[in-house]
Amino acid sequence: MTVSFDQLKQDFPILDQIVNDEPLVYLDNAATTQKPLAVLQAIETYYHTSNANVHRGVHTLGERATSQYEGSRTVVKDFINANETAEVLFTRGTTTSLNWVAKSFGELVIEPGDEILISYMEHHSNIIPWQQLAKKKQAKLVYIELTDQGQLDMDDAKQKITDKTKIVSISHVSNVLGVVNPIKQLADWIHEKNGYLVVDGAQAVPHMPVDVQALNADFYAFSGHKMLGPTGIGVLYGKRALLEQMEPVEFGGEMIDFVEEQDSTWKELPWKFEAGTPNIAGAIGLAAAMHYLNTIGMETIVQHERELVEYVMPKLEAIEGLTLFGPEDLRFRTGVISFNIDGVHPHDVATAMDMEGVAVRAGHHCAQPLMTYLNQAATARASFYLYNTKADADKFVEAILATKEFFLNGFN
Ligand code: C6P
């Protein structure tokens, strides 16, 4: 299918607005993405026609809601190529997914003296759950160093994956550097040591084809809202053999087989993990987002984002006093571009760019150890997605130049 990316914006009503007297250019997609009409309509139609609780009522609406909710699970399974729907758990998002793995699987396999290996580019959601587990179990949290290009130092990784390493937990794509990590290689190395690989896919699944079986990840976590879906829905993929061994993290309605006075037994996968009324509309919205992405094609999206980055990078590199973070070789990165303007605080950069209608994020991006590693208090960050165009990229560059001019030379 040939996609007209310039026309795609029409599917996203929110993008058609004026912000601070300028047409909105939304470049904060790593934080959250906008929703196409197809997703908004799927949620609305569900509430208009099928709203009921799932797995409970035998009435028509109950069965309709259940079949749409479980149908959404099948869509997710196919999207990431899981082996079966039992391996797809609906969660609130990446953060919940990673916490579940650390709490339940970590509890099962980590012994005192074991090592958990992460990296300096991780999001707090892929650091703190492991810190907590390590403290509880007297295990050690070990960090993989980065190269001067902001990539994982794979020599360091290989050396640090030892017989003591039980879990490696790594982001597939960094939310600050945009770097894509070699997940399959890490999977091979940790499996040779009989350990397990957990992947934080929050910034990967929205932007590239992800095949969890080809990657051989033991667990893979991601969020719906970063891929055109609603907030409050996410996924934890896990291999069946591992999920079977794990205890549920939450207990209550709908996750039980039988409850007696003093003890209970659990439903089979995936429902033993999904206590209480789930985010039904969220799952349906996520499936609609996946349909939308499939229609365009994930390879086409990769190509589009790469074209945008290849287009904008030389323009950014030409700006004096602009520092760019992440690999210079654009083949190793996605459409996430972190930058700083010498002498201007990133928050001031983001505020000034907003005055030009350009939405970027500034701060530590929930990656404080990475900021310390980069010796930066914060960065500004633009992140592109499928609805962004070369005109947006031009506006982004113009807004940086205007910001620089304003702060460094004042009013003319
Ligand atoms: N990063 C960003 O602006 P949740 O909030 O659970 O949907 O996702 C958490 C998360 C985990 N890992 C990575 C790599 C992420 O980028 C994020 C979310 C946003 O960069 C909000 S801090």
Verbal overview:
40% of the residues lie in helices and 17% in strands. It is of the alpha/beta class and 412 residues long. The protein has two domains: 40-294, Aspartate Aminotransferase, domain 2 (3-Layer(aba) Sandwich); 298-409, Aspartate Aminotransferase, domain 1. The longest helix is centred in the first third of the chain and has 21 residues, at 60-80. It is globular, with a radius of gyration of 22 Å. Residues 30-31, 93-95, 123, 125-126, 171, 175, 200, 202-203, 223, 361, 365-366 line the site of ligand C6P.
Note the gap between the termini: 49 Å
Q: How large is the radius of gyration? A: 22 Å
Q: Let me know the number of strands.
A: 17
> What is the mean predicted local confidence, pLDDT?
97
Topology:
Elements: H1 5-8, E1 18-19, E2 22-23, E3 25-26, H2 37-49, H3 60-80, E4 88-91, H4 94-109, E5 115-119, H5 128-137, E6 140-144, H6 154-160, E7 165-171, H7 183-192, E8 196-200, H8 212-215, E9 219-223, E10 234-238, H9 240-245, E11 256-259, E12 264-266, H10 280-296, H11 298-317, E13 322-324, E14 336-341, H12 346-355, E15 358-359, E16 361-363, H13 368-374, E17 379-383, H14 390-409
Parallel strand pairs: 3-15, 5-6, 5-7, 7-8, 8-9
Antiparallel strand pairs: 1-2, 4-10, 9-10, 11-12, 13-14, 14-17, 16-17
The structure holds ligand C6P.
Ligand C6P binds at residues 30-31, 93-95, 123, 125-126, 171, 175, 200, 202-203, 223, 361, 365-366.
